Fold each of these.
Amino acid sequence: MSDQILRAMTTDGWVKAVAISSRGIVERARTIHKTTPTATAALGRTLTACAMLGNMQKIENGSVTLQIKGGGPLGTVLAVSDAVGNVRGYVQNPHITLLEKYAGKLDVGAAVGTDGLLTVIRDLQMKEPYVGSVELVSGEIGDDVTAYLVQSEQCPSACGLGVLVDVDHSVKVAGGYILQLLPGAPESLIDRLEAGIAAAGSVTSMLDAGLTLREMLTKVTDGMELEFFEPTEVEYRCYCTRDRVEATLVSLGREELTQIAQEGKDVQVECQFCDTEYRFTPNEIRAILENL
């Protein structure tokens, strides 16, 4: 089954909800970047959250970048989503050793760290993107996304994320949800949602038990009456092309490109999101120089 994002709204119009199944996205990222289990979980949670944020934005041709720098051994974790929810990303140090809170429970917080910031860059197709940052709360990513939505966007929210890595290091299940209170919602709903989230348990436990996205949202909203919208299929998608890589080479400037051409060696450029390699011969570098 393909990965999907499902959006919903309570019939009273007070709560907006979105959920995602992202096993395919996270498994694709794992195979591309050859991540170890803790890195798989951290990158997977970041990709999952970013996909939902991108889908919720609903700005045609817009994008959302989610960047986490916590000072932990993983280094920078980054994801970029389009307006549909298709997402790509990378982790700076994908091969870190296994970190566990206890046997079978990956310690994502320790791998990410808490000495740093979560930054969200929203490209709204305006002159300048909107950039918001918050200090990391736990490094577990779900808590940190919640803090961002509450502090930076002044929207009472809850974000749950989960990645379950199987014994063979592949991704067994992955997904998440975001709940948001809309203007005018009574404060009593906060207590009800908190109770629903606590009773529902973790995202991985729900997905591993076979719950659908509808069932998961119904459970975390404590059985509130929901109106569901058509699900959207999403995937791990990189937009790199040879032309885009060539534009990156152009940005190096005439002097540096001339030096590269004079060395007489092929230039290899690797996409950080999908690891595709693009090779340029000295003659091709000289052709780029002629077109400058």
Amino acid sequence: MTSLVNPPSDASGGALNGPDELSLVVIQLFKGPIYREVHEKLWEPLGRLRRRVADHVAVLGLRLEIDETDGFAYLRSLRDGEGDIDYPRLVARHSLSFTTSLLIALLRKRLLEFDTSSTEARLVLSRDQIVDLYRVYAPSDLDDIKLARLVDNHVNRIVELGFLHKLRGSSDQFEVRRILRAFVDGQWLSQFDERLEAYIAGDGAARGRGDELEGDDATRA
């Protein structure tokens, strides 16, 4: 019996055995960012097909963002005024606890310091170094064990968001991924700094308010 669906074919008319490059690139982008050092087989096709990829996702109200310098690409929702149509949000916004927001802000600032003072390509921090970043803001009644457990919980959340990447073969070494710079800009940091000052001054309500970042839990590789 003849199939009613014709299989995709290449330029010569032969049937393809799998999805084409465009499909593979778009599928990965919907799963999460493409990293040059992680998705080596997709990075070159992404650059070659970037206009077609951008046109493909634009019909869903999404914009393709590519950072050639740091080697990553991701999808984000169109902002107000970027399109003629108000699309339903496809890329979720994630509510963050105050402590998670604080750690993200501290990591973003540490990355900024690293970029201005180091010639290394990657910022890698140990679990203890991340704990030390938060220690100065931690409640005074936390001992070292409770502090480490608290930070571990929020580090796991940041790993899920894709801003930290646990190094393979290590249990306590994390790379601060540069895609963090795309999601945490100066305005976000400024607004969070205002809340942090209120928290330090004793305004407990400031600590209870969460933040939002646009992104997908699949931002991890």
Amino acid sequence: MTQMNSIGLVELSSIAAGFQVADAMLKTSAVELLLSRSICSGKYMVLVGGDVAAVRASVDAGRNEAQGMVIDTFVIPNVHPDVFPAITGAANVQMLQALGIIESFSVASLIEAADAAAKTARVKLIEIRLAMALGGKAFVSLTGDVAAVRSAVDAGGAVCAARGLLVNKVVIPNPRKELLSEII
């Protein structure tokens, strides 16, 4: 079993290149394929996990194989443990406190923002929704006390904003309970 303390992603503008890149990434180093799929608006994403060195080598190989089709990439060492269940929809949130949402134009910047938000304050990631039925955008929802959610949303939003990819960020201090069923 691969040690899973790091994740890496290559986001591409071509579906065909996505398959080629995924193959190159998996052949380069001992990583685990976490997600490899087409996403809205004709893009493709490859997400791998493993130890930091293997993930860096894999992402570098994918970037080199992509032949100009790369939209964005990242490697996150020591990824926050809430990121995995939020991506897969397995996060277990029963009650909303304050609700925070960060929205980005790219999958890569959003996952980095979610990791930064979770590492900044005591919040729980609810969901990371990646570009499906979103016109290629992505968003993360999170909950916690109001101050923690504000800090987390500001930190995550800053990650997207620094790359020019922030669409919006909001904090809702006392959300109606019906919103939880709309999120998950």
Amino acid sequence: MKNINNPAELERIAGKIRLKALEMTVAKKKGHLGGTFSCVDILVALYYGGGLGIDPSRPQWPDRDRFILSKGHACLGLYPILVDLGFMSQERFDTYGDNGGLGGQLDTGIPGVEWNTGSLGHALGVCAGMALAAKMDRKNYRAYTLLGDAECAEGSIWEAITFAGEKKLNNLVALVDRNRLSVTEVLDDDSFFRSFPDAVRSLGWDCYDVDGHSIPALLETFQKAKTSEKPVLIICQTIKGKGVSFMENTIKWHHSVPTAAELEKARAELVKERP
């Protein structure tokens, strides 16, 4: 498994993934670029920076860490990683958007994918179950999930938070892509997020707030999570559409396809951004 400690190299990888997601969205006329771009740095830090204990040659290795990308509509941020690490082939990635090919959500038929996505609000509960199973089986693997900030208002999320705190699941890590935009609404800090960290801590969790586009900050926080005595929630402050100026902080780019002119502008900005 790759373990890259050079932030500049990880940032370069993140830039390549954004570019691949952009070009695939345009080629197949479908994709969720805004929410994909906001979480790419988190995924890169997790998969390449030593955060996850996984082995592409053994996708079902019993002692692997588990990861669920709850916001599965950001799959174009994960598919290129799975290709690069050897979980699946480039040929399969090229079927994205085709009949019978890869879809706009993740499924367990894809090596390296632990859960079928599409319906939000369930991944944290599933990961809590995985973390509890590890403890019951006396295993050392950890369970991670990346949530969208909008889904954190769902009751099932809070049931899972309460459960994990009561069970002291210190092998559970939940990351929140806090990009402040749902499909249709702005989720400002005067919403329930004002008291979110305190509420989570009161239910038996450690909670960190981190710049979700800072690779060094993410890597440092992941290491802290591994030594916690409690389940850990990491609020990653991000920008929807990160990396492309006209997409950033804009609801339109939750699910829109760039025109030819927009593609060229976006491509130029992403290539320029790469170190």
